[in-house]
Fold this sequence. Notes:
Elements: E1 12-16, H1 23-36, E2 41-45, H2 51-60, H3 69-93, E3 97-101, H4 104-114, H5 119-129, E4 136-141, H6 144-157, H7 161-164, H8 172-188, E5 192-196, H9 201-216
Parallel strand pairs: 1-3, 1-4, 2-3, 4-5
Helix pairs in contact: 1-9, 2-3, 4-8
The structure holds adenosine-5'-diphosphate (ADP).
Adenosine-5'-diphosphate binds next to α1, α6 and α9.
Amino acid sequence: MCNLGDELKPIFVVIDGIDGCGKTTQVCKLGNFFSGCNILHRITKEPGGTDVGSVLRSILISKKYNMEPETELLLYSADRIEHQKKVILPNLRDGINIISDRFISSTYAYQIFGRSVDKKILDLLFDVTVLTYPDIIFFIDIDLNTALERARKRLVQNNLIDDEGKFESLSLDFFKRVRDGFLWYAKNYKNVVIIDGERSADEIFEDIKNTVMDILK
Ligand code: ADP
């Protein structure tokens, strides 16, 4: 099942897409698969993959704060610097593979396409905040209604609408723009694979696993 050589270069894998598309599910599946193959890995996320990032996350996804879109963009960028310097780069240097729930692709999709922040700002920030580029970014593409229904259901069940539901409360139009943003990113940046998310979690994982194994070999 694993079939890998001894000298593996660690890779940086990102799983991205709109809320409720199945990112967490696939991140866990990939983590379990790596564990089964004795492949060292670290699961992480944006925002919130570090101590400072957790504080930023609680501000960013809470409905309590009415933040300017540019402020939001800068806080996500600050989180990304912390995340790379504290988690991603040190682990890669130690030979540990990274599996991250979201990265820069989300910022183009949500802040530039969703929130209509001037793209020039993020293009500038890209140069100073993306310190290492993912070996592969999976964009799980799925029907927006299905994804949002799942995401909102989870928030309601856990009573987290106010603390974590800022994005899930936005309109379908917002998420249409976000999806366009992910598709735009996939066309314009390297290492992005669009995954058909309208299938079972196992079928989706099969595609992800095959692509990851091809890169690792
Ligand atoms: P995200 O991390 O993108 O918000 P999750 O992985 O948490 O999404 O999935 C949201 C919900 O949808 C969870 O209840 C999960 O069990 C379910 N789910 C995930 N992938 C699928 C799938 N392919 N088909 C059906 N339900 C799924």
